[in-house]
Amino acid sequence: MAREKQHPMKIDRLLSIIVYLLNHELVSANTLAKRYGVSVRTIQRDLETIDLAGIPIYALQGSAGGYGIMNSYKMDRQLLTTDDFFNILTALQGVSDTLSDKTVSDTLEKMRSLVPVQTGDILSQRTEKLSIDFSMLGGDPRSREVFRIVKDAVDRQHLIEFGYTSNKLETTRRIIEPMTIAFRWRAWYLYGFCRLRKDFRLFRISRIKDPMVLPEQFRRREKPLEAYIAENPLWSGTGVMVDLHLRFLPEMIPLVEEYYPEETRNIQPDGSMVVTTRMPEDGSLYAYILSFGQFVEVLKPNHLRDTIRRAAEDIAARYKVPL
To answer: Following DSSP, what letter does each residue of 50-110 receive, concatenated?
Structure first.
């Protein structure tokens, strides 16, 4: 007799049920039915399918009963130490909270299923002592929705169209062959081939507006992200890197010491501090320097010194008291 062909959605549900049962001792049919949005009878048929596939399901009757997977079937999970589990789960949890990505959440659930009971107690205690929040990396709910749409285009290899504001504050509508999503320079970026510029580009996802996945698929081009970065070593993702010499007044030294390593700082005879560093030159750099107000001076490069001077003059003109 030919084996019944399973619908892809049912296969996903069966795999998810297996992972969930591995992560719990006993689960009622009602709980599973609510979790997967199907009837209790459908869950019972799913459990029969799992059992027939060779994964031993057992049932306990009564109010405290439910379904589970035989302990003798569960894999030996002692290859990973408590520290291994803690590090992996902490990182996955942070990424999951940041992106609201179901695939990451599913991976997190799978990893939790491997945690032995005694190790789980230790992990709970350690979680109370260390909390990592990456939520700022994911931005607001709108940014997360943009990320979801971009990721969908990358996964399915479909063209994506969106509005984009460059580091020069120029807004254009782009059609992109989306190839890679990467977290670099403290932000998420989309790497792909831009059909407007007819070249490879990096797009900061937080600057993408109104993305739309197009019906047309594309064939992936032969230039991975790492090759692009190797060809553009001075490109940071938001602008060309520039070498800076900044002089901070003594009042700013405690704050400056938090941001810059000791080898980049040099105390001057007048008590000020000169910092040498490298940053991408774009609008965010100008805003960063101006945020220190009168307590910082750009020494080099000269073109940036002139840019900040003109910005300061414009600010002073706006605050000029009318005669």
So the answer is: HHHTT--EEEE-STT-EEEE-TTTSPP-TTS-HHHHHHHHHHHHHHHHHH--HHHHHHHHH
- Per the structure block, which two tokens stand in for 51? 């059992």
Residue 26, SS3 per DSSP = coil
Alpha carbons 112 and 22: distance in angstroms, whole number: 9
207 close to 143: Cβ distance less than 8 angstroms: no
At 318, the amino acid letter reads R
Among 38, 47, 23, CA closest to 110: 23
Please give the structure tokens belonging to residue 246: 């900044």
DSSP structure string for 285-302: HHHHHHTTGGGEEEEE-H
pTM of the complete model beyond 0.70: no
Dist CA 5 CA 23 (whole Å)? 27
Give the strand pairing for 66-69 and 296-300: unpaired
Could you report the per-residue pLDDT of 261-308, keeping only the tens digit for each?
A: 888 899 999 999 999 988 777 667 788 888 888 899 999 999 999 988
